[in-house]
Design goal:
The longest helix is centred in the middle third of the chain and has 24 residues. It contains 13 helices and ten strands. By secondary structure, it is of the alpha/beta class.
């Protein structure tokens, strides 16, 4: 529908008078100018939940800034903590767009629960920047109360060691993540087979392991470099140490990981494989049907609500 067209605007109002949720991502102020602001819509339908997605929110000096995913990653500081040392990097998926969509769903769910209790709808405001900013909370704590904001660290973690990817003798990269002291002692004594590491003052606590990361990584890299990936995996698995089989072939179409292969979903529209939806509702069947063509149901929707509008007028 073209909401600047009077007939279409009237039809949309008719639809929204019976709707549960109205989601829009027009530029800030545009939906109000078109006559579809949250307050106006709820005067007609008090149970309506409205959700507006923006780049930087509906007020403030950044309100009218272009909000492409990459630019928001830059503004929030996300690129400054990603990539390799000396080379900040954009996250390779549109995390701001995706995250804002997830936050919108969460907000709408909260509004639906609130409506069950109050009988009244509410407005859900979500921005790409606020989504990114929330993810930067830990980094902000590091900046304010720690040794400063974390810098790009490649596969490493700013406050955990050992953590990262190490080369094997067959030129694979195996990632490990040691999360607590129990795992560290197991890793050092049973896996590295260097008993003195457990009592070495350079590696005795999480904080000093991070401070002496280069020395620790060198020891682990030396151990990994003379063993194959398969040999290392077997020992890590037996010791219950968290690891990942390979990097970075997970997203490669030619070498997908076994986990990715198991999660593929066949779409009805074409012979196309996509990842299955991350949320599964048992025992509800979550298979997806064919994606509608653009405008496929427009005439049907128009006819349905035109009839309702005429019926409503007749009853009045």
């Amino acid at each position: 529908m073209d909401i600047k067209d009077r007939a279409d605007a009237t039809l949309l109002h008719t639809l929204l008078d019976e709707a549960d949720v109205f989601i829009q991502n027009l530029a800030p102020g545009a939906v109000e100018r078109a006559g579809f602001g949250s307050d106006v819509l709820r005067q007609r339908n008090s149970r309506l939940i409205t959700c507006g997605l923006s780049g930087y929110g509906d007020d403030g000096s950044f309100r009218d800034m272009k909000a492409y995913d990459f630019l928001v990653q830059c503004e929030s500081g996300l690129v400054a903590i990603n990539g390799a040392p000396g080379h900040p990097g954009r996250i390779g998926v549109s995390v701001c767009d995706i995250g804002a969509g997830l936050n919108a769903i969460i907000g709408i769910q909260q509004a639906l629960i609130a409506r069950e209790r109050t009988g009244i709808g509410s407005d859900v405001a979500v921005s790409l920047f606020d989504t990114d900013d929330d993810w930067m909370t830990v980094q902000l704590l590091h900046s304010d109360y720690g040794a400063g904001a974390p810098q790009p660290a490649g596969l490493q973690h700013p406050s955990i060691a050992p953590y990262g990817g190490f080369k094997t003798c067959d030129d694979e990269t195996l990632a490990i993540s040691i999360q607590n002291e129990r795992e560290w002692k197991t890793f050092a004594s049973k896996y590295l087979i260097i008993l003195t590491l457990c009592i070495d003052t350079r590696f005795s606590t999480a904080s000093v392991r991070v401070a002496n990361r280069d020395q620790l990584d060198a020891i682990i890299a030396s151990f990994f470099s003379i063993r194959s990936r398969a040999e290392l995996e077997a020992v890590l698995k037996k010791a219950a140490i968290a690891f990942e089989r390979s990097i970075p072939s997970t997203a490669s179409p030619s070498i997908p990981s076994s986990a990715v292969q198991q999660r593929h979903l066949k779409m009805e529209t074409k012979s196309l494989w996509l990842l299955s939806h991350p949320t599964q509702l048992s025992p509800i069947d979550m298979r997806f049907g064919r994606v509608p063509r653009l405008g496929e149901h427009s005439d049907k929707i128009r006819l349905e609500f035109e009839k309702r509008r005429k019926l409503s007028r007749a009853l009045q």
